[in-house]
Amino acid sequence: MSFTLGGTLWIGLTPFFIAQEKGFFAEEDLTVDFKGFSSSADYNAAFLAGQLNAAAPVTSEAVSLAAKGKDYRIVLVESISVGGDGILARTKINSVKDFKGKKIAVEQGTVSHFFLLQVLEEAGLSDADVKFVNAPPAAAAAAYQAGNVDIAVTYSPYMNQADKAQTDGRIIYDSSKMPTAVADVYAFDTQFIEENPQAVEAFVRGIFKGITFLEEHPEEGLAIAAKKFEVTPEALAADLEGIQLPDAKTNLEMLGNSQSGLYLLNPLNRLATFLSKQGQVEEVPQLKNLLEPRFVEAVVKTQ
Questions:
Q1: CA dist 224 to 40, 78, 229, 277, Å?
Q2: Of 176, 180, 173, which Cα lies nearest the Cα of 87?
Q3: For the segment 17-67, what is each residue's pLDDT rounded down to a tens digit?
Q4: Residue of 241, 220, 91 whose CA lies nearest to 157
Q5: 10 Å Cβ neighbour count for 230?
Q6: Is this model's pTM higher than 0.90 or not?
Q7: What is the DSSP string of the chain?
Q8: Beta pairing, strands 85-89 & 31-36
Q9: CB count, 10 Å around CB of 13?
Q10: How buried is residue 157: exposed, middle or buried, by Cβ count under 10 Å (0-12/13-18/19+)?
Q11: Model confidence over 242-260: pLDDT tens digits?
Q12: Where in the chain is CATH 3.40.190.10?
């Protein structure tokens, strides 16, 4: 069994890269062809076009994919950002309210953009109050680090690297203050799921093995993934403090327990309403069938 998975190099993929390197997918008779893209717009376009069997979007992109008519299911929550995404700002900028009239480096139409819009709204501002400088996360962080912009929206590892290198400034706001705003998921084409359920279950099982290996053998696990991200194991360990890698039990709550405060459909619906209000999607998509917990359930039953 094999399939193609598209995404950008985000630290939430750490268990995936560990599973690949340690042969956890191979143990399940599965081959995963990971295709890395330079931007989320590119892999989402490929997923929409049927060029990928699966993708690793953030929740805002998941809503957008549904709004564009993509038939897919979320089978696993990859990561929850609890500080891994954020906004860098010069020392002279005292608060988010001071963003008014300022230039902000951010990749428009992506999770960073939507995160910023929510932060601005929280401070009583809108996109009309600021000036966007369109830049991918790495470029946005580099522009801030070089002193070319006063504010940048990005994520780890770029955020922490720029924060350490640029002494005039700090992380003024991060996703720990808005924990439901940024979550990454594994989304599979619905037809692929129907035709290859064993492959999807094998993938989910492999990811959980990757998480367990990282917990039990942190030095080796970090070393494996750090090579993929081109950072040191120590830097990756620090970056991973900004995200949560949900285990099987947490995933089951997020995907299958509508009574839980962690149930993912609730923030997805709120995000869909917000994006519609912002004009980022034409209409609020129907999301009630988006979550598919059966593969996580299958893994839990065998644990």
A1: 24, 18, 10, 42
A2: 173
A3: 999 999 999 999 999 999 999 888 899 999 999 999 999 999 989 999 999
A4: 241
A5: 9
A6: no
A7: -EEEEEE---GGGHHHHHHHHHTHHHHTT-EEEEEE-SSHHHHHHHHHTTS-SEE--BHHHHHHHHHTT--EEEEEEEEEESSSEEEEE-TT--SGGGGTT-EEEE-TTSHHHHHHHHHHHHTT--GGGSEEEE--HHHHHHHHHHTS-SEEEEETTHHHHHHHH--S-EEEEEGGGSTTS-EEEEEEEHHHHHH-HHHHHHHHHHHHHHHHHHHH-HHHHHHHHHHHHTS-HHHHHHHHTTEE---HHHHHHHHH-TTSTT-THHHHHHHHHHHHHTTSSSSPPP-TT-B--HHHHHHHHH-
A8: unpaired
A9: 26
A10: buried
A11: 899 999 999 999 999 999 8
A12: 2-81+181-302, 85-177
SS (H, E, C) 136-161: CHHHHHHHHHHCCCCEEEEECCHHHH
For 2-81+181-302, CATH number? 3.40.190.10
On whether the 85-177 domain is CATH 3.40.190.10, my answer is yes
Sign, Cα dihedral of 76, 79, 80, 86:
negative
The residue behind tokens 């509508």 is 258
Six-digit token string for 73:
């299911």
Length of the chain in residues, anyone?
303
Q: In 3D, which of 16, 110, 4, 20 has the Cα closest to residue 55?
A: 4
CA trace torsion 196, 201, 204, 209 (10° rounding): -130
